[in-house]
Amino acid sequence: MRVLVILCSNKMEMKWVNNIKILNEYLNQTCTQINYCGISSIDDFHNYETEIDFKYKIINEKRQLSKLSDFISEYKPHLDYDWYIKVRPDTKLLDKIDFSKLSESAINGRARMYTGPLKIQHGMSVNGAGIFRFVGDCFYNPDTIHIQLDDMIFIFDNNVINAGAFDPITENAEKEDELFQYTIWSKRNIKVNVIGINLKNTTHNVFSGDLNM
């Protein structure tokens, strides 16, 4: 399994280097080839080069989704991986990613907001231990009504790229948060798939919560 990890952030801060080490160790247990792309607002990729080698180093001062979309749009003819993992450096994996749960026709990730029937361990970016414990953005309903994916980490394949999920962003926003992602992907008819990912947000000391459990 060939994977491209896209580290996307305003800065590649040294305080997160251990998160990168852990990510690389987990992926090496399941992937035959791992390449890395770094997208930062400044040239600070050296902070992580003690742990990984970057195939791509992109300086882009835009926000999260625009950074990612600009890269994929430019390099699309050369991208040929089984999976792409977009992840922020402040994300600390606490377990391996279960690639068997991934959909090849959707963007896969934890939910930031969810109303529907699914019950998934580590399926939420809120309601776990930490300051977002009682945010309450998860509600049971027998039918799926609303899903917003969290922007810390999500996984997709070439089908999603070819469907236009990461075509250039022309809309302006003060922040490209989960609602902005939801709006863009809804306009482009891109599907999303909620999976469990056991991790810690090391910026806010927040752990994944469970979906409707």
Keywords:
213 residues; eight-stranded mixed sheet; alpha/beta; three-stranded antiparallel sheet; 18% helix; 4 helices; Spore Coat Polysaccharide Biosynthesis Protein SpsA, Chain A
Structure description:
The mean pLDDT is 96. The two termini are 32 Å apart. The protein has one domain: Spore Coat Polysaccharide Biosynthesis Protein SpsA, Chain A (Alpha-Beta Complex). By secondary structure, the chain is of the alpha/beta class. The chain is globular and about 45 Å long. The strands form 3 sheets. Strands 1, 2, 3, 4, 6, 8, 9 and 10 form an 8-stranded mixed beta sheet that branches. A 3-stranded antiparallel beta sheet has the order 5-11-12. The chain has 4 helices and 13 strands. It has helices at 17-28, 64-75, 158-162, 178-187; strands spanning 2-8, 33-40, 54-59, 83-87, 91-93, 107-116, 120-124, 138-140, 146-156, 192-194, 199-201, 206-207, 209-211.
Number of domains: 1
The main pleated sheet reads as: 8 strands, mixed
**Regarding CATH, which class?**
Alpha Beta
Name of the CATH architecture: Alpha-Beta Complex
Radius of gyration: 16 Å
Strand content: 25-35%
| β-strand number | 13
Q: Number of helical runs?
A: 4
What are the low-pLDDT stretches, counting only 5+ consecutive residues below 50?
Answer: none
